[in-house]
Amino acid sequence: GYDQVYDGVISTSTAVQEAVISGEKTLMGYAPIQGTQWSLLVQVPKSDYALLVNRAIFMIALAALCLLTLSLSVMYRLSHSISTSVKKVTRRMVALSDGDLQTEVDQLRSRDELELLTATMASTVSSMNLYISEIQRVLSHIASGKLDIAPQGEYRGDFSRIRDALEHIIFSLNETMCDFKAAAVRVARVAENLSDQS
């Protein structure tokens, strides 16, 4: 203890050691003063030092606990928000797969991938509504006997095949009707000739 500290100070070395002085544990730090034969010795009772260290450890542990609690709270809120948003989008996609094109898509304003996902889904539902409305309009005209109609609007991507199919159906029906009309004219002429011969 104390003898080692004394020897260290005499040898002009720098160190921190523990010693017992008057029955009390003491922490001693010493270092030589440059340019002199002197050394600087600092003596702190270990009880004071231990109290400071314990307080510092307690404060660090308390700060770490507060930061951990705060980060867990933020993570929980964030994960709950994402989970709720994903559930909403999933429910809407299930409804879409069941044929529900009328329910609006809840638009998220989260400035991340979820906002992009809901915007894309809303655009998809809107596009499908337009396509179905256009197909219904064309088929209703055909059903009422009006064959002078053409598909309108922009059919993008694979939906262009629907436009082609509608145009083909209208063209085929028009040709069939023209053939019926020509056949009816021929039958009328034959009937007229038969009537004249009679």
Offer a quick outline of the entry.
This protein is 66% helix and 12% strand. It has four helices and three strands; from the N terminus they run H-E-E-E-H-H-H.
Helix and strand layout, with pairings?
Blueprint: H1 2-10, E1 15-21, E2 24-32, E3 39-45, H2 46-97, H3 113-143, H4 160-197
Antiparallel strand pairs: 1-2, 2-3
Helix pairs in contact: 2-3
Can you put this structure into words, describing what you see?
The chain contains 4 helices and 3 strands, in the order αβββααα. It has helices at residues 2-10, 46-97, 113-143, 160-197; strands at residues 15-21, 24-32, 39-45. A 3-stranded antiparallel sheet has the order 1-2-3. Helix 2 (46-97) runs parallel beside helix 3. The radius of gyration is 46 Å and the shape is rod-shaped. The chain starts with a helix and ends with a helix. The model has no long low-confidence stretch (mean pLDDT 83).
**Ends distance:** 148 Å
Strand content: 5-15%
Give the number of helices.
Answer: 4
Overall residue-averaged pLDDT value: 83
Q: In order across it, which strands form the biggest sheet?
A: 1-2-3
The low-confidence runs, each spanning 5 or more residues with pLDDT under 50, are none
Query: Which bin fits the share of residues in helices?
Result: 55-70%
Tally the beta strands. 3
Give helix and strand order, one letter per element, not per position: HEEEHHH
| Secondary structure category | mainly alpha
Major β-sheet profile: 3 strands, antiparallel
CA-based shape = rod-shaped
Radius of gyration: 46 Å
